[in-house]
Amino acid sequence: MTEAGQATEATADAPLGEASSPQARLNEIRERLAQGERLRGSLETALNRAVAAVDPAATEESLALLQGSGGMELYRSLILWAGPVEGERVLDIGCGSGASTRACADIVGPEGSAVGTDPSPEALEMARERTSDYPNVIYRRAGAENLVGIEDRGYDFAVASLVLDQVGDLEATLREVHRVLRPGGRFVASVMAFDQLRPIDSGLMGALNAVVARHAPGALAGRASRATIPHERPDRAAFEASNLLRPEERDGMLILEMHDEEQAWNFFARTTMVLMLSDAGRNEFREVLGRRLPHTLSLPIRLMRSRRPG
Length: 310
Fold this sequence. Notes:
Blueprint: H1 3-13, H2 22-34, H3 41-54, H4 58-61, H5 76-81, E1 89-93, H6 99-108, E2 113-118, H7 121-130, E3 137-141, E4 155-161, H8 170-180, E5 181-192, H9 199-215, H10 233-242, E6 248-258, H11 261-268, H12 272-275, H13 279-291, E7 295-307
Parallel strand pairs: 1-2, 1-4, 2-3, 4-5
Antiparallel strand pairs: 5-7, 6-7
């Protein structure tokens, strides 16, 4: 890793102390959010990394298992929208436990290759364990805003699954995407589109967010009114500044059927909104959730597709 890359990571982790364990860092973040400190900047970065370290496989083992409208799947639908061809090189940004990277490798075939990047060493360790029989996959530690060690113009397409809404600097991330793509290379990304919730689902999520507001008031400060990427003006400006083309959009739903409390809790217990809560907050969250069951929750997902001109 370069000195610039080390500096970026150290700055993000500094408020919590690098020597502490992921669980200790998460506990400290919970306390700070409970005291009303706003979830933004280095604290938000630290939360995302602590959650990834404590439970690296959460997305792969919960959200990615859901089927959606029109046959949508979290990883495969996104990757196929890039128009992959066998033999191509693909970069998976924010690969987590490696499920998306493996899906990319399956699609580009043995003549192609996939590189997964993530800032979390815990996630990368799990990704490597789960990818031991994939000779065309490698992993590197790098954040989305600074893809350390990833060569210029080296990839036919890049994938960012549920990453863009977690980065602190969207413009820096998109500039890195532009840098690593070959001319004409494609970029696909997905984000949660909670501003597109159905009214019945908004009622459920509103009740659950009220629990978060009571126990971690800093977590929701200034976030509730944000439109889904890329609809805010700064998002559009970030794409323009990166020299990537204005993204196409495709919206869909992932369906979570919750017939009983245990089934619902197995899903929500691994989400960031629950992991940031104290024991008392988690107990209240589970109680409020249980009162609203059974419920079929439609989780809106937005896919975006762009490319580097050339």
